[in-house]
Design goal:
The complex is a heterotrimer of chains A (446), B (184) and C (277). Chain A has helices at residues 2-12, 14-17, 44-54, 59-73, 89-94, 98-103, 148-164; strands spanning 21-25, 33-37, 41-42, 77-79, 108-117, 120-129, 134-143, 173-180, 187-194, 201-202, 210-215, 221-226, 233-238, 244-246, 254-259, 265-272, 275-282, 288-290, 298-303, 309-314, 321-326, 333-334, 341-347, 353-360, 363-370, 377-382, 384-390, 396-402, 414-420, 427-429, 434-440. Chain A is α+β, with helices and mostly antiparallel strands. In chain A, helix 4 (59-73) packs across helix 7 (148-164). Chain A starts with a helix and ends in a 6-residue tail after the last strand. Chain B is α+β, with helices and mostly antiparallel strands and 184 residues long. Chain B has a domain at 55-182: OmpA-like domain (60s Ribosomal Protein L30, Chain: A), CATH 3.30.1330.60. Chain B is built from five helices and eight strands; from the N terminus they run ααβββββαβαβαβ. In chain B, strand 6 (112-117), helix 4 and strand 7 form a beta-alpha-beta unit. The longest helix of chain B is centred in the C-terminal third of the chain and has 21 residues, at 124-144. Chain B starts with 9 loop residues before the first helix and ends with a strand. The model of chain B is unreliable at 1-48 (pLDDT under 50). Chain C is mainly α and 277 residues long. Chain C has nine helices and four strands, in the order E-H-H-H-H-H-H-E-E-H-H-E-H. Chain C has helices at residues 44-56, 72-89, 99-113, 120-160, 162-171, 176-189, 233-249, 259-262, 272-276; strands at 28-33, 203-210, 216-221, 264-270. A three-stranded antiparallel sheet of chain C has the order 3-2-4. Chain C starts with 27 loop residues before the first strand and ends with a helix. Classes of the chains: A alpha+beta (446), B alpha+beta (184), C mainly alpha (277). Chains in contact: A-B, A-C. The interface between A and B is large, with 56 and 49 residues.
């Protein structure tokens, strides 16, 4: 009887009885995703040919190491120890035995193959979801063999994008100032390298002091400050042709240059009679426009990604603080109000944040704040560090850090570092010499 | 741009604040002629550290020693020193610059470069501007004492050419300077 | 006001190293296949044409079937069984279930039934489970802590809505402890993708169909239309991570009774709290 009654209720109120139970999952682990980068397989003939050209015993393994290092340094992935891999690279690339890979706790698997065909390096790779037991992506690249590191970076970017939903930042370069010699007579050269520190090249000889190089949006041009003939001026350098020119014809020091987001203008400071104002020069028609006009020091300008606004630092309040204004110089508004003084604002490529250097009680910080000045977050503290530059996807900042000298004035060093927007994953970027003033390029591919 | 501040007492802090607000522009700096020796430095709104002055070498945080000082001519010092983040000329600085101006008037063929420098405790770009401002403070003073502006070039090095590579308040004070150098 | 300065023509300066920096030529990209994962299953007809096309052009490979350039003869039978399974899954709304998991469960069960067949594989599986248990235990501790913080609220709720709660248990809901056990388990399995933009809506809802032992027979992403919208690339990543979590957690820690209540279950994965905090 009761059973029947129950049944009737069930029939009458089926919705109620079988309403879907919902469970909210609001927590998970934030550990880097464990994944396996299987060495790229290579046939013996290709291996021998490529060894002759590249002087690398197994270019397949070398490329997979590039990928592995990139993914690891991102802090988002945890490449697992290759010694634990059960399946041979060539077989895994054809058809991974997902049980084997999930056994070592890999959630994603990267496999690949290298060939040497018609004087070209051909690299294919596949990305697999181990738990869902399926392929997520497969691509192949053909290029000259000497480009092998770039192939590794492009693969890393593809994997990063597929697994995070954001563009990667591995196929990029860093322009920076290489430093040598005693602190009082420092020799500085422009240098360029891959994002991971490889393929370093010097662009100037060090006869003149050079400072603050910055890429244009296509990463073909650099604007920087040079003391050529003891006249500190902003220069433009085409890194492909090596040609150079002074930007504008100013009767005094121009400095703190950056490109506009469309690459058509250079924005910079011009110092005259004890005050510094912000100017732009149009690279097409060479017209110079004055943006700020104030008896204070206005410098370190940086455009918003849409080009409509400019952030800069000014000491018009008495001390260095961060301001924003429209790109025509109107509506100047101070946004930094925390304790301490603020400099080197840089607008993030996503547009929602401004990175800066903060000085407070004898310490230097790299931080970010929203464009209205709210939500200030300090990412790293040190004796001296400044000049953050954003990765093209707006997730990582690169900056330089100097050490304190000892009582005899020795022990000085300047190095490049990177840190995540989250404040985690701080890393030293290895350079041949001391280094400062880094600037991150855009993604070179696409 | 040292953040470690040198203050004898809070009264001085207040005075410095008042003075500095008045000194927001260069013109006002020029009219400021009497109180500057007391105008101790002020970089941030938050400073409390008191450091014992290094006897005979610093007043406030302005260098007063002779180490590293060169000579433009016999008895004419080549450089003047500044407080942190400041371009105000001290009494001693004005004395030095008057001597330079007098010598330059006697030697009308000489042209000079006034080099402005900052210490290492500031962002590079701002320090370039600060060095330029300091060099101009010296240049303007030379001009008021009769040296024609076309004989003086200013050149800022920011923090790129320190004379003392130390990371101490004393070293920084030596580096905050403008140096008058013969150009011909 | 005063500045309109004329640019001095380009001068090549002596201090530059003369040789231009050689930028390597841009890598040519040859596309084998981008398996865009979609949750809209192929209509059977479309699938057939794809299968046909595959035979003609090896490069075009559908995502469900891993490329089989080699070993064609051997894998043929496998393909056909996979096909059948896929067709089974292709009811309207259905999400293609990765066949592998189903297989895995089957093999596991077989192993249990025939203890004679126990080999190294099974051993490894048990190790795997052990480790997992440790993980969830530590996590349980964390949850307990969190529960303490919320306890005041819960007590309040209990006092106020006991009646409702009773009804919940009878008809629809899980008890708090049942829900907590399940949550704790899934918390431990879910690797939140760290690159997600945290100022976006990071909620993904997944519907599960369960067996009485807690193993999963079907998963469905409820807002899968969002997956392929422009600018929502991160949503796909998030959804995939949720699916991985569910798979990693199998069998789910479900109540021992009342199968009818929870044979269908909706999990709302929301990463925002974790990424913001």
């Amino acid at each position: 009887m009761t059973k029947k009654f129950f049944l009737i209720i069930l029939i009458l109120f089926p919705l109620n009885a079988f309403a879907l139970i919902e469970v909210d999952i609001t927590r998970g682990n934030l550990d880097p995703l464990p994944l396996a980068v299987s060495p790229l397989s290579i046939d013996e003939k290709s291996r021998l040919s490529l060894e002759e050209i590249l002087l690398k015993e197994n270019i397949g393994s070398e490329i997979s190491v590039v990928v592995e290092n990139n993914l690891k340094t991102s802090g988002l992935f945890n490449p697992l120890d290759k010694n634990a891999f059960l399946q041979a690279p060539d077989i895994a690339h054809l058809k991974p035995r997902f049980e084997d890979w999930s056994l070592i706790k890999a959630q994603a698997l990267i496999t690949g193959k290298v060939n040497y065909v018609e004087d070209k390096l051909r690299v294919e790779f596949r990305l697999w979801d181990v738990l869902a037991a399926k392929e997520l992506m497969a691509l192949a690249f053909t290029t000259v063999p000497t480009n092998w590191r770039r192939v590794g970076h492009i693969i890393s970017d593809k994997i990063y994008e597929r697994l995070t939903g954001e563009k990667g930042y591995f196929d990029t370069r860093i322009i920076y100032v290489a430093e040598e010699g005693p602190k009082t007579q420092r020799i500085k050269k422009l240098a360029i390298m891959d994002q991971d520190g490889f393929n370093n090249k010097f662009l100037t000889l060090g006869n003149e002091l050079v400072l603050t190089p910055r890429f244009n949006p296509t990463s073909q041009m650099i604007t920087y400050l040079s003391y050529f003939k003891n006249m500190p001026r902003v220069y433009l350098l085409d890194i492909e042709t090596g040609t150079q020119e002074v930007v504008g014809d100013f009767p005094g020091m121009t400095f703190a240059p950056r490109f506009s987001p469309d690459g058509k203008k250079i924005i910079m400071s011009f110092a005259n009679d004890g005050k510094s104002d912000i100017y732009t020069m149009d690279l097409e028609n060479r017209l110079v426009e004055r943006i700020t006009n104030h008896p204070s020091i206005d410098t370190s300008p940086s455009y918003s990604p849409d080009g409509k606004f400019i952030t800069f630092n000014s000491d018009r309040s008495g001390y260095q603080q961060i301001y924003i204004m429209r790109s025509d110089g109107s509506d100047v508004k101070r946004i930094s109000f925390g304790n301490g003084i603020y400099g080197t604002p840089v607008w993030s490529p996503r547009g929602d944040l401004i990175a800066f250097t903060k000085m407070h009680k004898g310490k230097f910080y790299i931080g970010v704040m929203r464009i209205d000045g709210s939500g200030e977050r300090l990412l790293t503290e040190n004796y001296y560090q400044e000049a953050p530059s954003w990765s093209p996807n707006g997730r990582v900042l690169i900056f330089y850090r100097e050490t304190k000298t000892d009582s005899s004035g020795k022990g000085f060093s300047a190095k490049l570092w990177s840190i995540d927007l989250t404040g985690y994953n701080e890393r030293l970027i290895t350079t041949l010499t001391d280094a400062s003033d880094p600037s991150w390029s855009s993604l070179l591919s696409n | 741009m040292t953040l470690s501040k040198i203050f004898k007492n809070t009264l001085l802090v207040l005075m410095a604040c008042i003075v500095l607000t008045a000194c927001a522009t260069k013109k006002e700096v020029e009219t400021q002629t009497t109180t500057t020796t007391e105008a101790k430095t002020e970089t941030t709104e938050t400073k409390a550290e008191t450091i014992e002055p290094i006897a005979g070498q610093m007043q406030g945080d302005v260098y007063t020693g002779t180490d590293s000082v060169g000579y433009l001519a016999e008895g004419v010092k080549d450089r003047v020193f500044f407080a942190t983040n400041e371009s105000i000329l001290t009494t001693a600085s004005r004395e030095t610059l008057r001597a330079q101006a007098a010598w330059l008037r006697k030697n009308p063929d000489v042209t000079v470069v006034v080099e402005g420098h900052a210490d290492e405790r500031g962002t590079r770009e701002y320090n370039l501007a600060l060095g330029e401002r300091r060099a101009n403070a010296a240049k303007d003073y030379l001009m008021t004492y009769g040296v024609s502006s076309d004989r003086i070039t200013v050149l800022s090095y920011g923090k790129e050419r320190p004379v003392d590579s130390g990371s101490t308040p004393l070293a920084w004070s030596k580096n905050r300077r403008s140096v008058t150098v013969k150009a011909n | 006001m005063h500045v309109l300065l004329i640019f001095i023509t380009a001068m090549s300066l002596p201090f530059l190293t003369k040789k231009p920096l050689d930028i390597p030529p841009i890598v040519s990209v040859e596309l084998i296949q981008i398996a865009e994962k979609t949750n809209i299953p192929y209509a059977p007809k479309a699938k057939k044409t794809i299968e046909k096309a595959k035979k003609k052009e090896k490069k075009l490979v559908s995502e469900q079937a891993p490329p089989k350039k080699v070993k064609k003869n051997k894998t043929k039978t496998v393909v056909s069984t996979e096909k059948n399974k896929k067709i089974e899954n292709e009811k309207p709304k259905a999400v293609p279930l990765p066949e592998k998991t189903v297989k895995k469960i089957e093999t596991k069960e077989e192993n249990k039934q025939n203890p004679d067949k126990v080999d190294t594989k099974v051993k490894q599986v048990s190790e795997f489970e052990k480790k997992e248990l440790v993980d969830t235990n530590t996590l349980q501790g964390l949850i307990d802590k969190a529960k303490e913080q919320e306890s005041a609220e819960i007590v309040k709720k209990n006092n106020q809505v006991t009646q409702d709660q009773v009804r919940n248990i009878e008809n629809t809901g899980l008890t708090l402890s049942e829900e907590d056990a399940l949550k704790a388990q899934i918390f431990g399995c879910w690797s939140i993708p760290l690159g997600l933009p945290y100022n976006e809506n990071l909620l993904v809802r997944i519907k599960l169909e369960l067996k009485p032992d807690g193993s999963i027979t079907k998963t469905e992403i409820l807002d899968h239309a969002r997956m392929n919208k422009p600018g929502q690339g991160f949503y796909k990543v998030l959804a995939e991570s949720a699916l991985r979590a569910v798979k990693l957690c199998q069998p789910l820690r479900v109540p021992s009774t009342g199968y009818e209540r929870w044979k269908e279950l909706q999990l709302n994965f929301d990463a925002r709290e974790m990424l913001e905090g």
